[in-house]
Amino acid sequence: MMLAAVLAATGAPARAHDETPGAMEVYLHGLVADGALTEVQHEYIERHFAAGHLEKLNRWLNAQERRRKLTHDINLYVKALLGLGDPAIIQAAAPADYTGNGNVTKLGQFDAQPPSPYYGDNSSTGTLYNGIWGYAAGSREYALQCNSFGLHIIDVTDPASPFRVQYIDMSGGASPPNGRIWRDVDIHRDPVSGKTYAYVGAQSNGNFWVVDLSYLSDSAPQGVDSNPIPPAGIADRGRTNYGHTVFINEDLGLLSLNTANNASTLGCQLFDLLQNPFDPPLLPSWTGSGHDCHDSFTRANVPGSGGKNLLYTAEGYAIRYRILDITNVRTGGAPVLVGESPTVSGIYAHSNWLDDDSHYLYAFEEFNVRDIGVYDVSNPASPTQVAAFQWSGDATANSRIHNGQVRGKYLITAYYEAGLRVFDISNPAHPVEVGKYETWRDPDGDGTFNKTITGGYNGAWNIHVFLPSGNVLVSDMKSGTFIFRVDTV
Fold it and tell me: For residues 130 and 119, what is the distance between their CA atoms, to the nearest angstrom?
C-alpha cells in the first residue's frame, strides 16, 4: 500500500509541521534510492504506519540504529518525516511591519514551459521550475531559469515584457516513479578571456553542463527563441548526480557541486574554474560518510579566520551546518573542518547564506521545524545561534522555507507556499518582515487566493538578488519566473 493512500485512509499523527502525503512518499522513496533505507525497511515503515503502530515504529527505528542498520541521522530524519518522537522547539513568527506587499513591487512574469502535469499534483511524473540565477551583459539582463528538462534563457531587460532567447535541453533531472526533479545554475566570469559561463547541475541521472554566455547580446535585443548560443558553446561534462545545487565564488574561481546525497559520500565537489572554465577539473573536496552537503556558500579571506577561504555547508540529514577551511585545495590540501553548529533534532539542514560582513549565517531548514536559524559566526570555530524565526503568518498558515539570500540589510527568501518574503535584518536577533509577494497563492496579484498553504513543497523555489538594475528574480515551481523591485525603506 502506498504511503499517500495510507495517510489518506488513517491520517497522520497531529503535528505542528505536517509533510504532504505525496512529498512524504517521495522522500521515503528517495531514501531507498540513496541507499539510506532498504526496501524491506521501507515496507516495514509503510505497514506499521498504516496500522497506527506509532510507538512500535518508534521503538523499531531506535533498534535499527542500535543494530547499525540505520544511521542516527536517518533515524531522526524518518521520525521528523512521519511526525514521530519529539521535534525540536518551534520558533515564533517574525513580526510584520507593512501593508499590502510592503517594499515589494511586481514588475513582470514569464511562464516559459508550463509544467504538465505539475509536480505538486503528480509527484511521480510531474515537472516543475527550480533553480534560477541572473546574468548581465552591457545594457541587457537575463534570467537563467532551470526546469525539469533544461535551461531557459530569458531576456528580462524590460521586466514588463520578458521573452525567451534560448532553451537548452539537458539530459536527466527527472526519474519517475520517484518524481525527483532537481536542477540548479550559477555563473562565473573568466578573468582571462572575459567570457561568462553558466554552470548547470542536476540530480537523478542528470549531468553537469557548461554554457558559454558570451554569445548573448550586450546591447540590442536578440529575437524570441533565436538560439544565439551554438552547440559549440554548450557542453555536457558528465558528473552524473553530482549537482543537486550549485554555488560559485567569483573571487576564488571555485565551483561547488553539492550532491545532497547521504549514501553516496560525494559531499561538496569542488572544481577549479580558473584552470579551465569550460571543462573545470575536480579539486580535493568535502567527501565521506555524513557529508551530505545539500548546499554551500563560499567566501574568500573571511574576517576572524586568519585570512582563510571558508566553505559553509548545509549538511542535510546530518542536521547541522559546518564551516570548512578550503584555502589549500588548489595545492592538494583537503577541506578542513573549522567549526560546526550543534545538531538540531528533526530539521533538514537545507541551505545557508552569509551576511555581507561575514558575521551572521542565515540557515534555512526544510522540515518546517524552526525555518530560519541565525548564527553568529564571527568566530568560525564556534558558531553560536542568536535567533530562529518563521514568516509572519506562520501561526495560521504554516509554510516551509526553501532558500534565501542577503542583500544589504535585507534577507530575501523563497518561502515555498508563502512566496517571496523579505525581512529587515538590521538587528539579526530580531528580524522584521517588511515585504512579500504571493507567487503561489496569488501569482496574478489580483488579491484573490486561488490556492492554500498546506505546508507542502509548492511555490517559491529560489531567488537571485544581484542584477545591476537591482531587480530581484524569483522562481516559482508552477508559475515560472517573476521579476520584482525590492525598495530600501
Answer: 11
Q: What is the pTM of this model?
A: 0.86
Domains held by the chain: number: 2
- 423 and 464 together in one domain: yes
**Going edge to edge, which strands form the sheet with 410-414?**
403-407, 410-414, 420-424, 432-437
Q: Is the dihedral of CA 42, 19, 439, 96 positive or negative?
A: negative
Provide the pLDDT for residue 456. 93
pLDDT at 12 over 60: no
In the predicted structure, residue 372 carries a pLDDT above the cut 90: yes
> Residue 432: how many CB atoms within 10 A of its CB?
17
Give a three-class secondary structure readout of 367-403. Answer: CCCCCEEEEECCCCCCCEEEEEEECCCCCCCCCCCCE
Q: Are residues 410 and 266 in the same domain?
A: yes
Residues 67 and 214 occupy one common structural domain: no
- CATH of residue 295's domain is 2.130.10.10
pLDDT band at 21 (very low <50, low <70, confident <90, very high): very low
> Three-state SS string across 146-193, please?
EECCEEEEEECCCCCCCEEEEEEECCCCCCCCCCCCCEEEEEEECCCC
